Amino acid sequence: MASDPHDQPIPVPVTAAGREGLEALLRTPGRAVVALDFDGTLADIVPDPDQARAHPDAVPALAALAPQVAAVAVVTGRPAGVAVRYGGFAGVAGLEHLVVLGHYGAERWDAVSGIVHAPAEHPGVAAVRAELPGFLDAIGAWRGTWIEEKGRALAVHTRRADDPAAAFAALREPLAELAARHGLMVEPGRAVLELRPPGMDKGVALTEFLEERDAGAVLYAGDDLGDLAAFSAVEKRRADGLPGLLVCSGSAEVPELASRADLVLPGPGAVTAFLSQLAGALRG
Fold it and tell me: Is-contact 21 28, C-beta < 8 A?
């Protein structure tokens, strides 16, 4: 009978900095912040983003780990409330102090209050929302390309197109020009181009959260290009003396992230197993 992966030894980071970050987390968990992306990290990537749900082991793993560390945060491009619903995070014992930083940190949900705090919508989002369908028709977007409404952002998905990579490449520059006309930016991802306001990214959100919690160590796990900013934030804090561990939820689609990670794990199932292993090690 195959052994339970949760009972296996904690994977060892391949870099010295990553090993130092893991050792600091295990040595002083009461000052450690664990921050995690949602899609592709805690939830499998699916063709329809509205059908994404946290991996079945994610909530139990987080609930076991959260009481033993300073803080656990989910940092996502999704609206905070959507991530809470799709993650099943509300009302879970052990996650009473979970924080979800949605829209790259522009929104915040705290489990302790159950309230989402968010600024007013950027006017450029409303303008692009009205213009985008006709814009895609005018430039002859590929069959299967579709728009996702994200509240404070809009995303154009190419995963269902006849040739997803060609559609992504062809749309990237025109969408960047459209976004710029309305004071927005384009965030590329895995077969998706997201048009959103500038000024906030996962690196900014993570840095502010680490300062808020006076972190003594940090673990960040992500899977996509949007997580590069958070990786850079951890690398900067490491240069300033804060131990940190960078985990990539492995994908051949995003080698840029995997090449900078201290530890590459093959998807959300392995990430949640890793979190459970950490919780078990901290319990002793």
Answer: no
